[in-house]
Amino acid sequence: MAHPALTAQGALPVHLRRLLEFSAPASGDLCLDVAGGGEELAGALRERVRRVVTADAPGDACVLPYAERSFSLVTCRPSLRSLGEPAAVVRELLRVCAPDGRVVLAELVRGDLTATGHAAPGSSVTELTGLIASAGGTIGRVDAFTAERPLDPWLAASDTPDADRIRRTLLREVDGGRVTGARPRVIGGELWFTQSWAHVAIRPS
Fold first, then answer.
1. What is the gyration radius of the CA atoms in the chain, in angstroms?
2. Which of 25, 119, 133, 134 could form a disulfide with 181 if both were Cys (CB 3.0 to 4.6 A apart)?
3. 57-113: per-residue pLDDT in tens?
4. Which UniProt keywords apply (predicted)?
5. How far out from the chain centre does Cα 102 lie?
6. Which run of H or E residues covers position 44?
7. Do 77 and 168 meet the contact criterion of CB atoms below 8 Å apart?
């Protein structure tokens, strides 16, 4: 039997399924999906909105090639830090968002694995909301949660040269080794780990 994290909305991982529902896409929305990689969310959004434009722009989301107020829904994932200077990225997302639209951020607050297999801390929810306010956004809803995900697909998407080292480290923890913060466990013969996410809905001030 498939793990619950992969059974709804096709094969969407649980954090993307939850982001899809949190974003509350409407049939009339013109959506911009800014991502560091991966088309899963954009594909699901296309089934619910009028049109989706994707911007796969790691390190270059501080200057988006779109006019002001172009989109009624802007989604951004998985990390502001991977897309440029975080405050500048937030300001740019707000710039292309319509006054009555919303920007939805998905940010890892813990669970981005380092080369040693340890879970690196990200911005806390408090730090993230402070950053948004300083960038001129008005915060609406916030959803903070943890999600388990299979390790191997994450490693493949990350394209990290340290995949074998990370896998060995987490397997050692499962066998009683040093605690990494990733909370690994084996599910159906696969190695899984845990991430902590924050979803924040904001609008231009």
1. 17
2. 119
3. 665 688 899 999 999 999 998 788 888 888 999 999 999 999 999 999 999 888 788
4. Methyltransferase, Transferase
5. 16
6. helix 40-46
7. no
The span from the CA of 85 to the CA of 48, in Å, is 31
Token digits for 86?
A: 């975080």
Spatial distance between the Cα atoms of 99 and 114, rounded to a whole number of angstroms: 39
Quick one: 193 exposed, middle or buried, by C-beta within 10 A (0-12, 13-18, 19+)? buried
Asked if residue 111 lies in contact with residue 192, where contact means CB atoms within 8 angstroms, the answer is no
Measured distance CA(106)–CA(22) in Å, rounded: 10
Which DSSP state fits 202? E
For 126-155, what is each residue's pLDDT tens digit?
Answer: 889 999 999 999 999 999 999 899 999 989
151 phi, psi to nearest 5 deg: -70, -45
**One-letter amino acid of 6:** L
Q: What is the residue type of 99?
A: P
Count of positions (residues) in the chain: 205
149 to each of 23, 57, 83, 97, 194, how far by Cα in Å?
Answer: 21, 24, 23, 31, 6
